[in-house]
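quick one, 75 residues, struct below
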Amino acid sequence: LTTNWGAAPELVEDGVTGVLTPSGDVDALVAALEPLMRDPALAAAMGKKARARVEEKFSLDAEAGAIADVYRRLI
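---
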């Protein structure tokens, strides 16, 4: 659960790996948090999917590969 500000939308797939809410919107934050508090299994499933997404897209190997691709394009 995070706001849709900064890098958060790049990290969180809304409704799949977490929930994005508008920055500063307390009502939206409460509305997003309530279902996760009522259903810990849903929260845990989102957490597992989030970890898998981060490991796939933002692991050291993935980041190194992306940097290498930039250098390859520059040569």
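The radius of gyration is 16 Å.
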